[in-house]
Design a protein that fits this description.
Length: about 300
Amino acid sequence: MGFFSKIKNGLKNTSEALKQSVGEVIKSFRKVDEEFFEELLESLVMCDVGVHTAEDICNRLKDKVKEKNIKDTSEITKLLREIVEEILTGENELKINTKPSIILVIGVNGAGKTTTIGKLALNLKNSGKNVLLAAADTFRAAAIDQLEVWAERSKTHIVKSVEGTDPASVVFDAIAAGKARKADVIIADTAGRLHNKKNLMDELAKIHRVIDRELPEADKEVLLVLDGTTGQNAVNQAREFKNVTPVSGIIVTKLDGTAKGGAVLSVKSELDIPVKFIGVGEGIDDLQPFDPHEFALSLFPEEKDKV
């Protein structure tokens, strides 16, 4: 299956929800007037886009309609596609140019964090990178075991310790191992105890200090894994994590099993956190680098692409 086909299939539920809600509004109006925009706003909110983001989209759409002197609704889908792409474009690629670079992966338990790390490791390995994993979620023994399984599946090295070990010490050991093995990228799993923000903040701050001391010149990404099926709750999680640590990008998982993919727009529009990857299936190769154009096209297909 090709890249666009995977994205399109993975976002099918969200696209259908938009078609039923937003598409019906567009079809039921002939003129672009204030009543049309009110109905459009409501339909976007119903698709888990979020109130602030829906307002942003409608305001941008009003500007485009005025600029292009559009009188009827026949061109609205095309304009919505352009707006979605505009909102989501910017810093979508990983910044991992130094050797080694380091990626901290954060997120609550259940979001698919450890599985996502395994898929990301394979993705980077397939692109020619020498990848090392660090099992720094030492709060749960299961997380260490699970990451070890993914290390085997992706044929990457792993640095681990036992449950209860200081996570920063695991990251320290991983950096030393990464230097010795000439790793291109070190990916560190971290605990996701958002309900205890003080512990999480202290733990992440200590990890950041170790990285800054041991790899002061390295490119560093802090990627937040969000469960796409939770809709606006994912946006609230992103806001909470952004309050405790610098988040450079998000990975949205499980988009193939939800009609709430519109929440991706809210994370970027409201929190200005770029999307780096999306998960569109359960397969090991179903974690896809995020492409704003393909995403927008999947949500609002051109006539020739509609099934």
